[in-house]
Amino acid sequence: MCSVPQGQAGRPSKALTFAQAEAVLKGAEGTSMHAYIVLALLTGARTEELCALTWDHVFLKGRPDMDPPQPPHIAVWRSVRRTGGTKTRKSRRTLALPARCVEALWQQFGDQGWDRLAADDKWEEHGLVFSSAVGKPLDAANVRRAFRAALKDVDGVDEAEWTPRELRHSFVSLLSDRGVPLEEISRLVGHSGTAVTEEVYRKQIRPVIQTGAVVMDGIFGADPRKP
């Protein structure tokens, strides 16, 4: 399984702007990292979760026959951690897939099929969504190199300054910028509570005081009696 390196102490976190995120999604098209980048940015899944994601936990057609119907989704129940720890109940979650994710995963499924044919008897079947050209689990260092290679020609983004984990930071930032409640963001990223989300992503979450002021201005506006 994919090994996850320890983060660099004191490294400041950052997030892509909306314009940068759009540029990254477009620039990654046609690369081996396209589906990985789309999923990380649009679902907020962790690096170790994507490395462990298997096809039997991917439901690209959903369950339209159910009541209520289930949209396309992934079950994020597995994780690969350097410490060997297992995921908590809170961090196990089922995430609906945006349309771009569904399209990217269908493409990934097809591309992996061609890899399997090309590898012939060298193929190692692990059922992984993201694997090497011969089916082996990805190494985190290789993921990072492939990620930066995919960003090489993206305008407005210096690939050397970004890592895969910052796609998750960008997911949080983009949701927060659009007014998604902290409680909902916390559930989506698999945190045990909002305090964890606020601590880990304090630079990406809009301050509550600022948000409250903006909302109240929208409700009441300026005092009409004031010139």
Automatic annotation (TrEMBL):
One of its GO terms (biological process) is DNA recombination. Residues 11-217 form the Tyr recombinase domain. One of its GO terms (molecular function) is DNA binding. Pfam families: Phage_integrase. Keywords: DNA recombination. The keyword Chaperone does not apply. InterPro entries: DNA_brk_join_enz (IPR011010), Integrase-like_cat_sf (IPR013762), Integrase_catalytic (IPR002104), Tyrosine_recombinase_XerCD (IPR050090). This is Site-specific integrase. It comes from Streptomyces griseoviridis. The lineage of its organism: Bacteria, Bacillati, Actinomycetota, Actinomycetes, Kitasatosporales.
